Amino acid sequence: MKAILLSIIALVCCSFFQMDELTVLKKWTPAAVVSDDAVKAYGIDSCFTVSAISDAVFSRMQGKSFKQNCTVPRSTLRYVKVLHRNVDGKTQLGEIVCNKSIANDLVDIFRKLYEANYKVERIVLIDEYDGDDERSMAADNTSSFNFRVVSGTTKLSKHAQGLAIDVNPLYNPYIHLNNGKVEPANGKPYATNRSAGRKLPVTFIDTNDLCYRLFIQHGFRWGGAWRTVKDYQHFEK
Ligand SMILES: [Zn+2]
Predict the structure, then answer these.
(1) Which sequence spans correspond to the domains of the chain?
(2) Distance from the CA of 18 to the center of ligand 1, in angstroms?
(3) DSSP characters for 84-152?
């Protein structure tokens, strides 16, 4: 009798727990961690989607990634939902604002990375860091759209159109070869000796890396192949 009662209690608690996770998935709470059972119950296809920029998302972007002088129309941007394996190997909710022309590429690439258990530390909108690239990179946040210029120039970045994405930027920093400056500043230990044998929470992006191979297959260019700067985190179309 006691055993039956206990299993009924366990069953009720379990379904409540899952309901809670299903609410998190339905609301798509950025950076929330969910169980694989909850993903199964919710449906994995609903976790990799492309949609228009909703009013709620657009208001989060105001004055941050979508600056007052933004010349890129809202209608050319998309909100992409993805799942990713975080550094603990847990399933985490990710969100990306990018150009509509690369939205399906990102869905496909991030789904393949997720299925391969490839670790990505964090994927939330750069607006969570007030559109500040250095702060977002320092937090190892993966992001795409941000209406800004190329660091150290007056030229609009591919990120300004949502045509570029930075992946695991802390461990794959941006190095200015002329002056040795590393962005983010706390990424300096990962700017040199980038051997695959190093123990890190995520893998270095190099030409053997799955992330690199998937982006190249989808027609992106890699910033790690550039000559005057090394932008290991950066893929653009
Ligand atoms: Zn970039």
Answers:
(1) 29-236
(2) 37
(3) EE-TTS-EEEEEEEEEHHHHHHHHHHHHHHHHTT-B--B---GGGGTT-HHHHHHTTB-B-----BPTT
